[in-house]
Write a structure and sequence with these properties.
Helix content is 9%, strand content 31%. It contains 8 helices and 28 strands. A hairpin with a 5-residue loop joins strand 8 and strand 9. By secondary structure, the chain is mainly β.
Length: 682
């Protein structure tokens, strides 16, 4: 499903170091400079050829025993032993009440404590942040891992619910089949109940009538004769279900006149293609016989060239990058660039106002969790031979820790993207590789000549009885920039036309005007092509030898503006799309731009609300937020599966170094390069 296939969370290292996360969410989101993601379809011609021709055998996925793991860094994720302790505390806290854990992660120590810590120091007290539900109430708890002390935080002022758990989704998909009305209407359409697959979709929020119950809307498909059941929707049936009880609340059934699309042509697997297969004779492979140029110390500290940063999986953000520092080539000083960066939220609104579609306005991180939807990476297919893998340890809904093996991989490579990649397991039980599938709408039309002149079909007719609905994609990034220290400022470097008034043969030129944002509202930025600016985060307290404040700039790309009305409920809930750039005062509790409890939220706990407080931000500890986005008008090339779509933005130094920092990097000469020989084909 598009918007639920994979996530890329990458870092702004100056060249080709890459961190890859594969999850069930679709769109690639490079976090910045020159880093890219590699996925390769497991049955693609390129990967098949690579596995067969290269001399070295395909490496088996490594499995690590994490039961004896201990933390080495203040930001290291909770270990299995620590999570077991917390689970026991949670059981005791709730007593005989039935509860569910929706998040169990490290509660980061205070920022100043982390910044003062050095390797060899004892770790600050380890605490867990727990989001749970019991008796219809949301709980936000802080648990001291050693003492077991619990502090409960008041969240009664925040609407919405925590993200759904995997257990929630696995249990609710069978709820429709327990309903006689549903079974009857399926049979009336000529569909075998054994071929039906129903998937849970978050309902958004559209008024107080929806408050008080944690709801989900299930849409159903037929799996008959295709692996790509998304292309065979049973249009018009929506099963509204209570997630806490799995009770079917309401069935909307208005699409009996709409035929189910045929299975022919929907299968994306190479083995299903009837025509000639295109296969280049000479595969391309990047090899490093002597190993990679980076190291991973103590499980989470990545060092490459003159960069180092802390990396860890996260159930909501996917991956988090912290304490990003670079060693200055001139002074040898290890300098701070970014304290923490991650994808904060994703918003995918579909542009069809009809009853079976209006609610499809997904907030994937806050409603489902990028990391929770992650799957294990496949060596060579997802990551190259030189990759280093990192496991994740997450909590099940009862708090029991489990290991998600090979969730993240780190490697060096040249730029380039795979053709497509996807995995679908909850329904079929099979792991199938691809990138993203447009959520399609069933229709009675088989040709555009059947569509009336002024009729809005809300998308593109992709094939017989299939419409790809127009939609948007927005990904918001949290970037806690600490350029050479905590106190930074945001500068709008405005570029404008200036006239010479006869003092030169030139009539005009471009002039630079720099404005330092004093408060948060002054840093709410809408990008304008014909009114351009650069956007710098500087440290006004530290200057270069020639007197420029040191800084970094965000270089936008993949920009799109939301066309939804500001008062439309989906827009209020995902208000981070109101601007492409925001800057807020650092607040440890403000990390998720769509709100702590995004599921069925009302929109009163968003970055728009925080920023409108208009706190001072000049020469303060500030956070930069960047919203990447693009519109998607589906086309026939998106059927039956989309090619990979890539986008991103850069973070680049601006007067941070005294001169070009790459001048000391020596090039390789011919005799230093490895020579890889292909083995004979099997």
């Amino acid at each position: 499903m598009e918007g639920k296939n994979f996530l890329r969370c990458l870092f702004f290292i100056c060249t080709i170091l890459l961190i890859m996360l594969f999850t069930a969410f679709n769109f690639p989101t490079p976090l910045s400079d020159k880093s890219e993601l590699l996925e390769c379809a497991s049955n693609s011609a390129w990967c098949t050829a690579k596995n067969r021709i290269l001399r070295h055998p395909k490496p088996a996925p490594l499995r690590h025993d994490h039961t004896a793991d201990v933390p080495h860094h203040p930001l290291d994720p909770l270990t299995i032993q620590e999570m077991n302790k917390v689970q026991n505390v949670i059981k005791s806290f709730f007593g005989k009440s039935v509860y569910s854990v929706h998040s169990l992660v490290l509660e980061d120590p205070e920022k100043q404590v982390v910044l003062k810590w050095q390797k060899g120091d004892s770790l600050p007290p380890r605490k867990a942040s727990v989001i749970a539900r019991a008796a219809g109430k949301n709980y936000l708890l802080t648990v001291d891992v050693e003492s077991g002390e619990v502090v409960e935080h008041d969240t009664s002022h925040i609407s919405g619910f925590p993200l759904v758990t995997l257990e929630d989704m696995q249990n609710v998909i069978y709820a429709p089949l327990s309903n006689a009305h549903f079974n009857r209407t399926i049979l009336e359409r000529g569909v075998d109940l054994n071929d039906v697959a129903c998937l849970p979709f978050s309902p958004g929020w559209f008024g107080k009538a929806e408050d008080g119950r944690r709801l989900v809307k299930l849409e159903c498909f037929t799996m008959k004769d295709t692996a790509n059941f998304y292309m065979r929707p049973i249009e018009g049936i929506i099963v509204i279900t209570d997630l806490d009880t799995n009770e079917v609340v309401e069935i909307i059934d208005k699409g009996k006149h709409i035929p189910i699309p045929k299975a022919a042509g929907t299968d994306y697997r190479l083995s299903a293609e009837n025509g000639p297969v295109i296969k280049l004779p000479n595969p391309i492979s990047m090899e490093q016989p002597n190993g990679p140029n980076f190291v991973v110390e103590d499980g989470h500290l990545v060092k490459w060239a003159n960069w180092e940063f802390h990396l860890k999986p996260d159930p909501r953000a996917g991956v988090m990058i912290s304490r990003a520092r670079v060693r200055d080539p001139e002074t040898g000083e290890l300098r701070n660039v970014m304290y923490q960066g991650f994808s904060s939220e994703l918003f995918v609104p579909y542009m069809d106002p009809e009853e079976a579609w209006y609610f499809k306005t997904y907030m994937d991180a806050g409603e489902y969790g990028f990391g929770l939807q992650a799957l294990s990476l496949d060596p060579l297919n997802d990551c190259p031979r030189n990759a280093k893998f990192m496991d994740a340890i997450f909590a099940a809904s009862d708090g029991t820790p489990y290991v998600r093996s090979n969730m993240v991989c780190i490697f060096e490579r040249y730029a380039g993207d795979a053709a497509w990649r996807h995995t679908e397991s909850p329904i079929t039980g099979k792991l199938v590789s691809l990138t993203g599938i447009v959520i399609v709408k069933g229709t009675s039309y088989v040709n555009m000549n059947q569509v009336k002149e002024n009729e809005d079909i809300y998308g593109t007719l992709l094939a017989d009885n299939i419409i790809g609905v127009v939609h948007d994609h927005y990904i918001n990034f949290y970037l806690d920039m600490d350029i050479d220290g905590l106190d930074n400022s945001f500068v709008n470097v405005h570029l404008q036309r200036e006239y010479t008034h006869g003092t030169s043969p030139r009539k005009s030129y471009m002039k630079v005007n720099k404005t330092v944002a004093k408060t948060e509202k002054e840093a709410q930025i809408k990008l304008k092509l014909y009114d351009p600016s650069e956007f710098h985060v500087i440290n006004p307290n530290k200057k270069t030898k020639v007197g420029n404040p040191v800084g970094y700039k965000v270089v936008p790309a993949g920009t799109a503006a939301s066309l939804l009305d500001p008062e439309d409920p989906p827009q209020k809930r995902s208000a981070f799309t109101n601007n492409q750039i925001w800057v807020t005062r650092y607040n440890k509790s403000e990390q998720w731009s769509g709100g702590l409890f995004a599921y069925q939220s009302h929109g009163e706990d968003t970055i728009q609300v925080w920023s409108d407080r208009d706190r001072p931000i000049e020469n303060k500890d500030i956070v930069l937020w960047y919203t990447l986005g693009f519109h998607h008008v589906p086309c026939q090339e998106d059927f039956p599966i989309m090619p990979t779509v890539s986008s991103g933005f850069d973070l680049k130094p601006v007067n941070f170094f005294e001169r070009n920092p790459v001048l000391r990097i020596a090039p390789y000469v011919e005799n230093e390069l490895p020579v890889c020989k292909a083995a004979a084909s099997a």
